[in-house]
Specification:
The chain has a domain of 38 residues. The chain is built from 2 helices and no strands. It is mostly helical and 60 residues long.
């Protein structure tokens, strides 16, 4: 844990924490977006099951 005194030091630490979280969130969003786009030409039932497939894929 770093002790900060000025606002600029606090901002630098905040950005160091923010960047990895932001990259991860954008990556997950894009993964889901492109997964939906790729499955979009299939029947609607596949679009309903696709999130469940991802969930079970993470669990196993």
């Amino acid at each position: 844990m770093y002790e900060t005194q000025t606002i600029s030091q606090k901002l630098k630490l905040f950005i160091k924490i923010l960047i990895p979280i932001l990259v991860t969130q954008v990556g997950l969003y894009l993964m889901n977006f492109f997964d939906t786009i790729m499955a979009g030409r299939l029947v609607p039932m596949i679009l309903q099951v696709s999130p469940l497939d991802r969930l079970f894929g993470y669990l196993y």
